[in-house]
Amino acid sequence: MAVLAASQILNRLHIEDPRDPRRLYIMPTPKRSDVKDASIDLVLGNYFIVTKTAKFSILDAGEGETKKNIALYQEKVFIPFNYSLVLHLGTFVLGVTWQYIGMPDDLFAEVFSRSTWGRAGLTVATAVSIHPGFCGCLTLELVNNGNAPLALRPGARIAQIIFFDVQAGDGKPIPIRASKYCGLIEPDFSRLYEECEELKGWKNIGINLQL
Q1: C or N: which end of the chain has fewer Cβ atoms within 10 Å?
Q2: Residue-wise pLDDT tens digits, 68-90
Q3: ∠ at Cα 33 (22, 130), nearest 5°?
C-alpha cells in the first residue's frame, strides 16, 4: 500500500473518461494548487449534528430504546456561510465536508486534522478511514481539546485527505463492501442501535458458557 503523490492524485482527478474505474471524483474539483505534496485540504460544510441536554442515563447499543434516545440526544443544525458554530471546551459535534467524494475500487484514504487547527486544540477524529468504493460527503468528528472556544466556519480548510493505492495479493482491486453511511451529503446520526442484534448473540454465548 503506497501513498499517492500529488501528480498521481491529479492524474486520477483528471481522467477524461467518466467510465474509467480508476477515476477519483471530488466535487467541486480541486484546483491544481489545492493538491499539495500528497494530500488535499478538505473544507468544512454547512451541516452539523450537535448534542442536546439528555434526559436519559446512557447510550447503550444493547438496549432497544437506543434509536429513540439518539433522537433526543442530538439534533441537526445548518450554519450559513459567514456565520459560525462555537465549539466550547470538551464539546463534541459532527460536521461534514463541503466536498463530495467518489472513491475508485483500488484506492483507500484517511482523513487527518490540519496542523493549523490541531495547534488550536481541535481534533478531527484520529483518522477517518475512507474505504474503496465509498461515495458521499465525509462526516467529521470534531472535538475541542484546547483551552478556548473555537469558531467553526463553513468554508474553512479544516482537515486533509491522503490517498493510498491498494491492491490484493493477486494484483486485483480488493472487493468492496457497501457502507451504511455511503452516499450521504449531510452528517448522519449514529446508528449504534444497529449493533443490538450482534450484541444479543454475544449475550447468548455468555449464557451457554455459564450453563
Answers
A1: C
A2: 666 667 788 999 999 999 999 98
A3: 40
Provide the residue count of the chain. 211
User: Is 141 one of the annotated active-site residues of the chain?
Assistant: yes
- Distance in angstroms (rounded) separating the CA atoms of residues 19 and 5: 23
Asked whether 132 and 176 are in contact (CB, 8 A), the reply is yes
158 contact partners, CB below 8 Å, separation of at least 6: 42, 43, 44, 95, 113, 114, 117, 122, 124, 140, 142, 152
Instruction: Dig out the grid coordinates for 23 from the structure.
Output: 477515476
| Strands of 7-115, DSSP E | 25-27, 35-36, 39-43, 47-51, 74-78, 85-87, 92-102, 107-113
Read out DSSP for 154-181? TT-EEEEEEEEE---TTSSPPP----TT
Cα gap 25→12, rounded to integer Å: 8
- Condensed to tens digits (0 to 9), the pLDDT of residues 9-39 reads 999 999 989 889 999 999 999 888 888 889 9
Buried b (16+ CB within 10 A) or exposed e, 136-152: bbbbbebbbebeeebeb
Give the amino acid at 1. M
Question: 179 and 134 in contact (C-beta within 8 Å)?
Answer: yes
For 2-210, CATH gives: 2.70.40.10
Residues 29, 33, 39, 44: is their CA dihedral positive or negative?
A: negative
